[in-house]
Amino acid sequence: MDIIPRHLAENVARTLRTTRVINIVGPRQAGKTTLVRDMVEAARYLDLDDETLLASLALDPYGQLHTLSLETRPTELPIVIDEVQRLPQITLALKRIVDRDRRPGQFVLTGSSNVFTTPKALDSLAGRVSTLTLRPLSAAEIMRKGPCRLLDAVGVEPSALARHLPSPASFQRSDALDLVVRGGFPEIRPLRDRDRMGRYASYIDSIVERDVAPVAEVRRPDALRRMITQLAHRTAEELNVTSLCSALGARKETVNTYLDVLVRLGIVHRLGAWTASGARKEVRSPKLHFMDMGCATALRGDDSKSFGVGADPVALGHILESFVFCELEKSLPFLDHHWELYHWRLAPREVDIVAQAPGRLLALFEIKASTSVTANDFRHLDWFLTDGPGRSYKGTAFVIYLGEQTLSFGPGRLALPLSILWSFPSADRTGKQR
């Protein structure tokens, strides 16, 4: 299978030169092992999915790792430990080793959850570890393009905004929907629809059976499986715990625990509500996004044909909104400035995604499952920035839609094709665009 280059590779290479322990976290099958084996020359590779190795290390984590560290030190190459979340007590051993030897790039860890935040972890390695998150493939990676830098254009002179963006790649609506529903898991996305749905069902089983235990005790795995399917149907909706409890026949405490587990495993994301400084809370609940639309649509029983002529526009709108959110979230580590993502709603007005950066910069996003845009589609965004809670901020408004043209609706107001997410050029190692 062709290996798709990952944008995070450069971040990993840079972190190896500056940090003693690099911790790469991401959902199962997102490509962590491939990323590390493809780009990191290791002195030793330890896979804790090997039960014999796991049992051996568990007996004496410090003694064995310390001996291995001394043996491999002359190579100046890191020791890679895969699926490290299966042995949380290893954290104290790592601390003792890297406190005595302060060289950068000693250990590279990978795991489906962050071992340093689990209840059984013996130390957080604060100041000694850098944690990087690897999501499933972005649309830009699949298309062999550079990271989406749409938010980097925010803050320029509003009348010049369009000139700071690349020309959107040409696409057909059917091709875009196929890209969305295939998702970003490298081994699953090339499969036929029926096979892909079966693999995603097995994928969820693997998560429940293998990845949940290191994070929290789950007494009802069947309820957790059903909850994941429920969340796939509720992506891009405000989180309603009471409704989930009713659908699952579970207590509120149980549902909240399961939600925390799924967030930590990178399966879902709770998108907080944006608030103006000193203002009251603008929305009652966070919005929930499933973090891979291939997995979500498979659990819903949908494929690209499900969103053809006559399909439910609300369902497609939610799928596209979560897709755009995921693509923006994946782009955050590669931007020039620190951005945070939120949503906002005060009935009857709503903003799908609110991005905020230092300097009181805002970027507002409306996602539209249509091939046409009118000025009316900007009404909530315009109100938010002129008369609403964002009026004291410097704001830019975007409508992302399924058409093919970039359209201006005034300074700082752009309608952009969905393909803008995979239209930014890549760069070589010198930073030169190509």
Layout of helices and strands, plus pairs?
Elements: H1 8-16, E1 21-25, H2 32-39, E2 44-47, H3 51-59, H4 61-72, E3 79-82, H5 90-100, E4 107-111, E5 129-133, H6 139-142, H7 173-182, H8 193-211, H9 221-233, E6 237-238, H10 241-248, H11 252-264, E7 268-271, E8 287-290, H12 293-300, H13 313-331, E9 340-346, E10 349-357, E11 361-367, H14 379-386, E12 394-401, E13 407-408, E14 413-417
Parallel strand pairs: 1-4, 1-5, 2-3, 3-4, 11-12, 12-14
Antiparallel strand pairs: 6-8, 7-8, 9-10, 10-11, 13-14
Helix pairs in contact: 3-4, 4-5, 8-9, 8-12, 9-12
Order of helices and strands: HEHEHHEHEEHHHHEHHEEHHEEEHEEE
Report how far apart the termini are: 25 Å
**Average of per-residue pLDDT values:** 91
Portion of residues in beta strands equals 15-25%
Helix percent reads: 25-40%
* Biggest beta sheet attributes: 6 strands, mixed
Structural class: alpha/beta
CA-based shape: globular
Q: Tell me the number of helical segments per DSSP (H or I, 4 or more residues long).
A: 14
- Which strands sit side by side, in order, in the main sheet? 9-10-11-12-14-13
Total separate domains: 2
Question: How many β-strand runs?
Answer: 14
In angstroms, what is the radius of gyration?
A: 22 Å
Low-confidence stretches: 428-434
